Amino acid sequence: MKKIFLQISGMHCASCALTIEKNLKKIEGVENAAVNFANEKATVDYDEAKIHPADLVRTIKESGYEASLSEEDKLWTISGQKVVFKAIGMNNPHCAGIVGKVLQDLKGVSKYNLDIASEKVEAEYSAPLTAEEIMEAVKEAGYEPVSLEKQAQPLEDREKQAREREINNLKFSTLLAALLSVPIFLGSFPEWFPFLPGFFSNRYLLWVLATPVQLFAGWQFYKGAWVALKHKTTDMNTLIALGTSAAYFYSVFATVFPGILTAAGQKADVYFDTAAVIVTLILLGRYLEAVARGKTSEAIKKLIGLQAKTARVIRGGKEMDVPVEEVIVGDIIVVRPGEKISVDGKIIEGTSAIDESMITGESVPVDKKVGDEVIGATINKAGSFKFKAIKVGKDTTLSQIIRLVEEAQASKAPVQKLADTVTAYFVPAVMGIAILTFTVWFFFGPAPAFTLALVNMVAVLIIACPCALGLATPTAIIVGTGKGAENGILIKDAGSLELAEKIKTVVFDKTGTLTKGEPEVTDIAETDSWTKNDLLKISASAERYSEHPLGMAVVKKAQTEGLTLLEPKDFQAMPGKGIRAVVEGKEVLKGNLKLMEENKVDLKGMQEESEVFSDLGRTPMYVAVEGKIAGIVAVADTIKDSSKEAVGELHKMGIRVIMITGDNLQTAQTIARQVGIDQVLAEVLPPEKEEKIKQLQKETRSVVAMVGDGINDAPALAASDVGIAIGTGTDVAIEASDITLISGDLKAVVTAIKLSKATMSTVRQNLFFAFVYNTALIPVAAGVLYPFFGILLNPIFAAFAMASSSISVLTNSLRLRGFKAER
Asked: Which of 109, 146, 705, 734 has the most beta carbons within 10 angstroms of its beta carbon?
């Protein structure tokens, strides 16, 4: 099965989304389809062997909507089966001949064009051949292919243009309708505006003014209703078209044939003002809704906007600026102070401090040196350096983040199923209520029965708002997942976001999660004949070329203290014991008690000091020089600065915190006491962690979250209800977890849970408002209050209420943009 994302335009309400979803699911080979009305995207899982992405696009277009693939790396799979790319090195006729021969030999290539000057290749082809296979064949011939599809017109530009086009069209239609509706309204109530000339109230003039509003500005309602009718369904457009048409065409009839109505005992009133003002208000609502919908996906736009446009690459010994799309793996890139890093890579020369806040959410710049990884889209604050490109294009950390956020925003939360079910039956139910309203008022209502029946029927048709129901969940999910991405929290799907608020138990892995995952020197205990610095210097010198983590920690500590290391000789590593080396002609032994005993070193009371360090969960290493004890260097995997604060915040939220580790119980309990952990599961081997999680789920009968590194802890993360992976640098463990924290800061766990609670609270508010709005005001529009209070709802006010309901839901969702992360 393959997953694909489609950008859809032309949807007007949740019913439109359900129609497309239903039609996609009918296609043989489609496993699942989900259409999100709020961000106008569809996610489809399909069998490549049975259908092509073009079939999905065609189905959506046949349903009456526009569609295009939304992943940049799949742009070539539709629209004429054409791929455009650069073949780096194809800069002469001979090379072009080789590339041409490669293309000729590929079964499926029907036409191609080669441009030597720009090294550009254009090829038209047919399935089952793919663009990737064409580019791979050219690569095998010795030329590096670089896709130019997204360089020609980036996806975000196309989406932006489509959104602007929609907003501008709605703006024009709304202004036109408003300009014409004002004189129509004034002329319809001469008793309210007696100062106006009499011709303003002429029915034929009102007809002329109302016609462009109804049939031009309001044409989209008819178009949408017709599309729905063709597919044997109904939607929001159906209700609006029926309601406004009833008012408009009845008024036309009353204007042209008033005698027929008066002869039948009915008043020949006209309702051009009702039809025109309703169209205007609904168009205004849609315009404001389109603007607000654009704001819900601001997070994605910000992420896309982070991408660097160019990179300074060294090729042929010269520095040159090239578009970021042309950077290939292995390129050496130069970065100067203040510049944006173009792609992911590893520093090979120089040092710097890099602002990674836009990716990780961490506000403090991170110091980088040779061998450290850098992330594309982050900003070099100080110092120049060179780095080697490791990940480019869709493989960069930023691209992965964008893809994950898009997937999450396109997914549906379980709570949305209720809204979808109601929406599916909503419009037919409203039409039934409208017919019933007309019937009851016509046969049992007071005079003028027909007029009251017509007006109340129109009010029912207009006030119903499935849009509010359709927007209630996805808009909040879009803003919530986007806000998470801004703070370095990647949420896999809407279901994960919904479930996170119910977490009652959080299980932390110890190493690399609660702790830094790297040993550090914590204590130095020296004998009377040694100073701390001298002891550290000689022990670090002995370990200078050691590759053991404990030895490297000692060397790092000495370098941090500014000590100059000496050259060791005759270095010998003794597994399970320690090391032996000669420094300045003196034999240095460094290791555990067993090594000291074998060499008959008198510890002179240092053993008691060693036991104290062991009780604190640290690893003591004895240092002996020329057979005499010099002291102890203690090393430990230290606790992260954020661990204690994060655990404390979780306790305040009423969440139980457990630590799971393979360490011995004594070491584990020491760490647990320092952090404030409730329960310790020690001496648990990696394969056993999954079983422990399942056991906790049975015991607690609650939602259990597991926080780990996403690689070693993958089985346990998968077994938990909510798997939260700690990612660092370019290693974002997206597939292994439900939620990924880009930085190692554990306060992000607290932020993720609080964000989930805030988002789901907003969803519930939206659904409550949407349900209450529709269930309360539809009966009012039908006239149920008239027998008791003499109250009837004017269709114009019904239109205003309907437009307001969607905007209220959107505005409530946008409040999430003010959510503050834990710092």
From this structure: 705
